[in-house]
Amino acid sequence: MVTTAPTALEAELLALAGSVPDPELPVLTLGDLGVVRGVRVLAPGKVDVELTPTYTGCPAIEAMTSDIERALHDHGMTEVSVRTVLSPAWSTDDISAEGRRKLAEFGIAPPRSHPTDGPVPLSLSIRCPHCGSTDTELLSRFSSTACKALRRCVSCREPFDHFKEL
Amino acid sequence: MTATPASATPAPATPVPATPSAEATLRGPASDPAQVSPALALGDDALVLSHRLGEWAGHAPVLEEEVALANIALDLLGQARVLLSLVGDEDELAYLREERAFRNLQLVEQPNGDFAHTIARQLYFSTYQTLLYGQLASGSGQFAPLAAKAVKEVAYHQDHAEQWTLRLGDGTAESHERMQRGLDALWRFTGEMFQPVDGLGIDCQALRAGWTASVTSVVERATLAVPGGPQTGAWTAGAGRQGLHTEPFGRMLAEMQHLHLSHPGASW
Are B64 and A150 in contact (CB < 8 Å)? Predict the structure, then answer.
């Protein structure tokens, strides 16, 4: 496979695909989530998009695919193929800083970052997205979707979802 | 799911290693036991356990567990779809195969029993799957990309099973007794996990050693006893991978395949 720098059109289409809202967490875009891996223009009007699932069984992948197809069709691309790629595996570290901010604002505690190098930090506590307290407890390892855990704030007693580190 | 049914294609041109013919895949046990497609073996494990866990919907002890078990089932179903698609049409493989053509471990087809029984099955299987996918992820074979992704999901399944094993084992007298009963009842199905599957390239001895150490540690911390009996029954040794299944599996399949068989091509 020949890898070349993206053209201006490819960069524009990547931004467009990345601006599609996530079907389950519409507060985030697919770009915030970090699941659009690349866009390549193969011929005029013909484009190939690489999409990676958050979890292997994520049922939203089909909705994401058709939403990207629609967005690019509306932009004049007549032939859009969205391919699902598994490697390299998606990680919650792929969620952008903007994405983390939006999650917290939406009431979902964002995932903590994995240490990449240097000393391993003490495990950071998970902050309540409602009152900001770090005194929170785990209720269930799996919540409304596979990617979230259910927690409760000990200070304000509100339950909340936490986007699990993956 | 847009793949053309295998029956409509002249010959499978996909670069899949050692794929049996579509007819053999759908109908019966492999004539040569060593010819089991590794993708089919792992895919069937994930599919069958996913279905069993789905049976808890509406019956779990608490709402949070209902959701947790459904989420674990969903992860497994996603893995099954990727793996079965390496072999052929995923729907056809799931809904049109007869019992003897399934290659899953007998462990995963065992009925749910009570909640402790399901947790024992989860502990045994998720520990195995974490170690297995860990090995596959560090290799360079065709399963490495899926394994690298799935091992992170399965780590949460294992954590879920371990925490419940500790809680039930070290809980009340009744929860302790039920957890022990679940571990004991399923022990004889655990030996099959360490039988080599041709084409997987797994170090089965390391797998067994890692599994035994991990399960022993959790079971002992839960104040329970590691079952002492043989890890295979005399007549069932390694039989699931060869298409021989236990009696409850046929009923599970009948339910799983019923809708598709009664209304071919049904969708919503």
Answer: yes
Chain B residue numbers with beta carbons less than 8 Å from the beta carbon of A57 are: 74-79, 81
| Residue A28: CATH number of its domain | 3.30.300.130
Rounded Cα distance, B227 and B185, in Å: 9
ipTM: 0.81
Strand-by-strand arrangement of the A79-84 sheet: A36-43, A46-51, A79-84
With beta carbons less than 8 A apart as the criterion, state whether B160 and B122 touch: yes
Q: B156 and A164: CB-CB below 8 Å?
A: yes
CA distance B49 to chain A (A): 14
Give whole-number Cα distances, A39 to A9, A36, A90, in Å: 9, 8, 17
**80-99 in A: which are within 8 Å (CB) of B?**
86-91
Please give the single-letter amino acid code of residue B2. T
Q: Are residues A62 and A110 in the same domain?
A: no
Q: What is the DSSP letter of A110?
A: P
Q: Which domain holds residue A74?
A: 8-84
pLDDT tens profile A100-130: 999 999 999 999 887 655 554 445 688 999 9
Cite the DSSP H helix spans in B10-114.
Answer: 22-27, 38-54, 63-87, 90-95, 106-109
Question: What's the pLDDT at B267?
Answer: 81
B78 neighbors B152 (Cβ within 8 angstroms): no
- Structural domains in chain B, sorted by start: 35-262 (1.20.1260.10)
Q: Cα–Cα–Cα angle for A119, A121, A125, nearest 5°?
A: 170
Answer whether B54 touches A (CB < 8 Å): no
Q: Identify the band that residue B42 occupies on the pLDDT scale cut at 50, 70 and 90.
A: very high
Which among A110, A61, A18 has a CA at the least distance from the CA of B149?
A: A61
The token pair at B154 is: 């399965």
Touching check for B51 and chain A: CB below 8 Å?
no
